[in-house]
UniProtKB/TrEMBL annotation:
InterPro entries: AAA+_ATPase, ABC_transporter-like_ATP-bd, ABC_transporter-like_CS, ABC_transporter_ATP-bind, P-loop_NTPase. The keyword Nucleotide-binding applies. One of its GO terms (molecular function) is ATP binding. The keyword Nucleotide-binding applies. It comes from the Bacteria. Keywords: ATP-binding, Nucleotide-binding, Transport. Residues 3-235 form the ABC transporter domain. This is ABC transporter ATP-binding protein.
């Protein structure tokens, strides 16, 4: 996927908001990219455009030679913070819901959904309903559902934002393993420096609104990464480097906290 000179401007009640300005970015197959930036800098807007849910005001997004103009679950699947599972359906049917809309037979749907549940360590929960599962387990189901369509790219918008630190970490480790083994191309929007460094091959730092690509940092450590990568010197150095970049992105002095949410 290549994002070429993309700008997005919103107009609401006579007010114009320039959300994104001249974004250029290429994603390589199998690559894991994290988007990091101050609150309101347009990360979700960019993800929405990548998924074809919104057309940029200027510029275009290409997959191969074709312009992304509308959603296509085989090209891009989303995972959001709130899981968005169907509470009245069991876990197996939740995973297969997209396949059902795509006209896949019941037998094939169940087989594919069961394989994904096995991969996510959830096989024994196939007959349960979302309300019987913890938040972390529900998010694993949401990832399985997204992968069921075998999308070229997985778009994750703060997928672990609602979970506690411990769950985020163990979930991060297991999902990261699955995505790496699948050679899945992923774009992750996150506010967490730790999450970006632990997961991504490349971290894109965006400036405050209008969001621009300010810098990018490569994380060389091979994926999937062991949890103790977080305790290494390399991790600490990457963390302080990104912290300072983020601080600069916000136009703050050296003592401000760039991770504090400040919606424009
Ligand atoms: N549909 C819309 N109409 C008008 N303004 C919008 C719309 N969607 C987003 N915006 C504005 O565009 C800017 C970018 O929003 P966006 O949600 O993409 O930022 P973000 O970086 O994902 O924020 P956060 O990190 O807080 O989730 C914000 O100022 C937001 O208020």
């Amino acid at each position: 996927m290549s994002i070429n000179d993309v700008s997005v401007t919103f107009t609401r009640a006579g007010t114009t908001v320039e959300a994104l300005k001249d974004i250029n970015l290429s994603l390589h197959e199998g690559e894991f990219v994290a988007l990091l930036g101050p609150s309101g800098c347009g990360k979700s807007t960019l993800l929405t455009c990548m998924g074809g849910l919104m057309t940029p005001t200027k510029g275009q997004i290409l997959v191969g030679d074709s312009v992304v103009k509308e959603p296509d679950p085989r090209r891009a699947a989303f995972v959001f913070q709130d899981y968005s599972l169907l509470p009245w359906k069991n876990i197996l049917d939740n995973v297969g819901v997209g396949l059902r809309f795509a006209g896949v037979s019941k037998q094939e749907r169940h087989q594919r959904s069961q394989e994904l549940l096995d991969m996510m360590g959830l096989s024994q929960w196939a007959d349960s309903h979302p309300g019987q599962l913890s938040g972390g387990m529900q998010q694993r189901v949401a990832v399985a559902r997204a992968l069921a369509m075998d999308p070229s790219i997985l778009l994750m918008d703060e997928p672990f934002g609602a979970l506690d630190e411990q769950t985020r970490r163990s979930l991060g480790e297991s999902i990261s393993t699955v995505l790496t083994e699948n050679k899945q191309t992923v774009v992750l929007v996150t506010h967490s420096l730790d999450e970006a460094i632990y997961w991504a091959d490349r971290v894109i730092v965006m400036s405050a609104r209008p969001g621009k690509v300010m810098a990018e940092v490569k994380i060389e450590q091979m994926r999937p990464r062991p949890l103790d990568f977080i305790a290494t010197e390399e991790f600490a150095q990457l963390r302080s480097r990104l912290f300072l970049m983020l601080n600069e992105a916000m136009g703050n002095g050296p003592h401000a906290n760039p991770l504090e949410k400040q919606r424009a």
